[in-house]
Every structure is written in structure tokens, then in C-alpha cells.
Specification:
The protein is an all-alpha fold. Helices cover 73% and strands 2% of the residues. It has 15 helices and 4 strands. The protein has a two-stranded antiparallel ribbon. It has a two-stranded antiparallel sheet with strand order 2-3. The longest helix has 30 residues, at 161-190.
Amino acid sequence: MKGTDRGRSAKIGALCVLAASLLWGTTGTAATFAPDVGPLAIGAVAMGLGGLLQALIAAPQIAAHASRLRDQRGTIVLGAVSVAVYPLAFYSSMHLAGVAVGTVVSIGTAPLASSLIERVIDGRRLTRRWTLAASLGLLGTALLCIAEATHATDGTSRTSLAGTFLGIGLGLVAAATYALYSWAAHRLITRQIPSRAAMGAVFGLGGLLLVPVLLATGAPLLASWPNAAVGTYMALVPMLAGYVLFGWGLAHVPASTATTLSLLEPAVAAVLAVLVVGELLPPAGWLGIALVIACLAVLTTSTPTRHTRGRPRNNPVDHYDSPPRQTSDVVHGGEHRTHYPT
């Protein structure tokens, strides 16, 4: 793939992930409109039904690539288990610690977990650009957490200090599982499985794992039309549409880049929590949001193209170093980074 094509592909992938992050940023606020529905039920209906719908839509692609998917069943199972655990931890984190801090911790620490996975398993070396962007994002995340924890002790917060710290712990679990299923989906895509089939297989199996949780906790979703509307919105918009966009993004950028771009989600969630839910965000929290935005700017802004031996370098949002390629689609470790259409 030529350098200009790779750069354009990376930009498209980044835009898809950012669009998904905008949709995901609405989930915490949407959940507050169904206060009688517990976090486990919200997580199960959102990711469970959303995942099953993804699998249904992708059924033809899954069938067409069934043999390749069977060859990667270990990766699929790892991704599916992570998909099942993630929403339960994520929505419980927001329930205990508040929308802003739950989202910030769950998404804000995912890039660190994702980069560690890629470094250990794939042997990727992170560039200075990614390190700077991730540092800004993590600092912004830390400021948001500190602001929320301080707010929890001043007597005006809706959450207790103990709930905040328990929520932070569950947020870290959510971050780890988010990084794992993102890595699993990207790995399937780089193994010549189209993104729709890869995401459908991982999220469909994950949705099946969430069905028992939904059956056990989901009765309040049917108790009123507002509750049912929230569950329907969560499954169709942020989960189904959002993860279709995320799958397209993973076809063009590595998982750690995608999780870093997803730092837009906690910023959106924090702003909506203030404007819609009525949560208060101290000045340090707003500074944290500004640093997250700066992180996204560093990661997605193009740098002047330099040529070495006729080959462009430093493509936008391409955050890891790799040895010179002998062909246009082969990188170190024998893995392919050709981007396959959905």
C-alpha cells in the first residue's frame, strides 16, 4: 500500500473511532433516564442485544469466513469473554462513582493496557508521538479522577468516597477488558478476516454470554416505556452503530491507537453529565478534559511528510515503529497489516 493511501486509510480509521466514541459518550447519561434499572441490566441489554444484533447482521460474512474464524477460536473466546465482562464492570463503575469518573477511568486507562498488550504479545515499539498523546490523556484522566474524588468528600456529591474508589476499581477492570477485546478484534482483522465478520463473531459470542445476566436482572427494563426506550437506545445506537464504526476503525489503525482515540468518550460523558445529569465538575476536571482534547489533537494531527529512500514515514495516527518492509503489506513478526474491506 502506498504511503498516501496508508495515511488516508489511517485518517478514515481515526474518524470512525472518534465517531464511535461520540456515541459511547452518551451511554452514561442515557442510563440515568432509567434509574430503576440496575447497572448489570443496563450493561447486559446494551452489549448483549447489541452484540447479538451485530452477529445477525454479519451472519453472511461469518459463514463465508467460518474456517478462518475456527482457526482463531482462542482469540475469539478471549475477546468474547472480555466483551461480556466489560459492560458489567463499566456500568457498575458509573453507578458507584458517577458518570464522569466511571467513564474516565474505564476509557482513560485503556490505552495503557492496550499498549502493554501490543508490546508484550506483538512486540510493537511505541513512538514518541503516541507516548506524548497517551501521557496527556492519562494526565487528563488523573485530573478528572482527582476532581471527582475530591468532590465526593465535600458533602455535595451524590456518591460516597468508598463508592468512588470501588467504582474506580471496577473502571480499571473495564479498561483491561476493553483493551483485550479491541486487541482481539484487531488481531482477527489482521489475519485476513473482514471487520464485520470479526466483530460479529466476537460480539455475538459475548452477547450470548450476557443473556443469562439479562434474564436474571432485566425485568425492570420491561416495567415502563422509558426504561424500555433506554434499553433499546443503548443496544441500537451506541452499541450496534458505535461498534460497527469501531470495527471499521480497527481495520485501519492498531488497537492501542483506537483505544487512545476513544479518550474522547470520557470527555463527552463528563460534559453531558454536567449539562444533562446535573453533576458538578470542579476546575481541575475541566482542565482534565482540555488535556484529553490535546491528546486527541496530538494523535490525529498530520505531521509534514518526510521521505527516506522514496518511502514516506510517520503516517497520521500510526504510532509504532516497525522495520523496513520488503513488500507493501508485510511487517515484523510475520503479521500482515493489509486493510481488508468489510
